[in-house]
Each structure stands twice: as structure tokens, then as C-alpha cells.
Amino acid sequence: MKAVTTRQKSPAEDMSGKQKAAVVLMAMGPHAAAEITKVFTAAELEEISYEIARMERVSSEVVNDVLAEWGQMEAAAVSIAEGGVDYARQVLESAIGPQKAAAILKRIETQLRENAGFRNLRNADPSQMAALLRNEHPQTVALLLAHLEPEQTASMLKDFPPDLGGDVLLRLARLDKVLPEVLQVLEKCYGSESTVTISKDLSVAGGPQAVATVLNQVTASLEKELIDIIATSDAALSDEIKNLMFTFEDIVRLDDRSMQRVLRDVQMKELALALKAASEPLRNRIIGLMSSRAADTLREEMSFLGPVRLRDVESAQAAVVRNIRALEAAGEIVIGGGEDDMVV
Predict the structure, then answer these.
(1) Residues 252-309: pLDDT tens digits?
(2) What is the pLDDT of residues 218-232, one digit of tens each?
(3) Predicted confidence band of residue 92 (pLDDT cuts 50, 70, 90)
(4) Domains parsed from the chain with CATH numbers
């Protein structure tokens, strides 16, 4: 009978990526760790520092295992950059075997997909980006914006002429699949640090949902102007985008539980400012879900505000909508869950 061998579980296998990063920094010592953490964001530094604080003592076995994995991943990343995924796979399989090599490559490919492409543009100032792209062909701009964060795209749209912004969004909504070779050309033209392409498949970019997400980040006046421009070229597409959007006035459609969850995260001053230009039904709905004391405080805040600029009101409303979208993404609320959407 053939003996059955079981794989020995490594000491660090159950550790999270943050915990492993903490172990690597601890092993390096304070001076080297300080140099590396200079490139961390404030949030990343806080998270890693928290993990370090939790680890009072780490066994040498765990440290060696984490450092070995880190070394393997570093070697794999270098191999990918020098000779592509297939070359990296050959190097790793020869060094540590097919099973471990596959696991490491999978993690690296995921990181590269998440971080590769237009890295410099993602860190650029939106106003400077808008000035850079204002004279480019709208199709080129749409391709670039499809790979930026919605907040960054929304900020850039404010600095575009409305006709250009509407044209770019129309093209962005019509984007479906983009050849990786096309993205590589754009990356080189606009100074991206990444030249690695993991997959030969077509890259997903744009579409009506992407445009709806961007438009949810801009002011109501700009949103209407851009939607109207899209509608002049493609009324059906404009309607599709609007159906995917959620505006401040749509809050009235939330069920009571979702509405109360949203109100927990909104500061009273921000809510008062947002409601200055809101419809009476929405105001009454929100006040009706508050305690008497909270409702009185909200009314006082609104009266203290006096005349306010429309753009400030729209900015406050956009902030509330962003919070609602974040709660929906986290599964904490359901948009469109009002009584008129219920089936008995």
C-alpha cells in the first residue's frame, strides 16, 4: 500500500498579510523599518503599528518562515519583471516546488492587477490632470479615466469644459473591453511605473455603472448638465445611467432602518447644510425619524446657517450620498428598500 503523506503546515500559514508585514519590519530593526515605512500611507502605518503592538514575542520559527516567504515573493516579483509570469513560475518551481510556487504567484498576480497601470496618474492632483488632458482626444481621456478612482474623475470633470466632460462620459459609458496592448501604450505615454501585463485577456473598463458612480460624486448642477449632454447623443444610455444613480433626493426611498443607519454617520451641521435645498417631503421624513431633541437641534442648526452658497449645499449632499453608497457596498443598508418596493 502506498503511504499517504500529509503536508506539514508552516508556522506562519494562518497569519494575515498585515501580521507578516509586521514580523518583517520587526526583524529588520527600528532604523531599517523606519526607512521602509516612510512610503506607507497614514492608514497603512497605523494598521501595521497596531499589529506590531499586539505581538509581544514572536518565535524564531515564525520569523524564519515569514522571512523565507517574503524572500520568495520578492524573487518572484523580480522574475516577473524580468521575464514574465512563465519565467517566474519556472524559477519558483525549481526552487520551492509547484505547490508553493502556484500560491505565491497567485498572490503576486492579484497585487499586480490591483496596483498596476496608471499609478502615477492615480497619485496626481486632479486639477493638474485636467489641464494635462483637456486637449487630448475624448476617447483617450475616457480610457484613462476608466482606470482612475471615481472621486478623482469627478474632481477632474469640474475643471473640464461641460461639452468635453459630457463627451468623455458618453465614451466612458460605451466602453466595455479594452485590449491590454492599448493600455500599455497609454501607460508609457503618461509616465506609469508599471509595464507588466499579467493577462492577455481584454481588460474591463467603463460602462454605464462606472459613469453613474462618477456622477454620484459631482454636484447636482454639474450632474444635470453632463447627463443632458449625454442624452443629446444617446437618450437611452442617459436613462440607463440615471437609473443606476442615487441622488440626495432619493434618500426618501430608503426604508426606516436604512435611513436611521445613515443618520448615525452624518454630522448634524452637515445634515443641516444638505437639507437647506432639500424638498419638504425629504425634510419631514428625516425629522420624523429623529428623536424630539435631535429634531429640535437640526432645526436650530438650519436656522443658524442663514443664506448659504448652493455649491456648499451640493457638496454636503454629495458627502451624504457617498456615505450611503459606502454603507450599501458594506451590506449595511439596502438602497430602494422602501415600502413601494416591497412584495407581500
Answers:
(1) 888 889 899 999 989 999 999 999 888 899 999 999 999 999 999 999 998 888 888 8
(2) 877 888 899 999 999
(3) low
(4) 17-115 (no CATH), 119-244 (1.10.220.30), 248-341 (1.10.220.30)
And the C-alpha cell for 296?
Answer: 429640535
Report yes or no: 126 and 156 within 8 Å, Cβ to Cβ.
yes
- Is residue 204 helix, strand or coil? strand
DSSP state, residue 124: S
pTM of the model: 0.44
Residues in contact with 118: Cβ distance below 8 Å, sequence separation at least 6, in sequence order = 144, 147, 148, 186, 187, 190, 192
Dmax over CA atoms of the chain, in Å, equals: 87
Which cell goes with 207?
460602462
Interior CA angle at 114 toward 23 and 87, to 5°? 80
Are 130 and 209 within 8 A, CB to CB? no
Instruction: Extract long-range pairs of 93-96: CB within 8 Å, 24+ residues apart.
Output: 96/72
Give rounded-to-5 percent helix, strand, coil for the chain. Answer: 70, 0, 30
| DSSP codes joined into one string, 134-181 | TTS-HHHHHHHHTTS-HHHHHHHHTTS-HHHHHHHHHHHHH--EE-HH
Q: Counting runs of H as helices and runs of E as strands, what totals does the chain give?
A: 19, 2
Q: Beta strands of 160-286 (E only): which ranges?
A: 177-178, 203-204
pLDDT tops 90 at residue 31: no
Q: How far apart (Å, rounded) are the C-alpha atoms in residues 181 and 193?
A: 16
Q: Is 203 helix (H, G, I), strand (E, B) or coil?
A: strand
Q: How many C-beta atoms lie closer than 10 Å to residue 253's C-beta?
A: 18
All cell numbers assigned to 77: 516579483
The whole-angstrom separation of Cα 3 and Cα 152 is 58
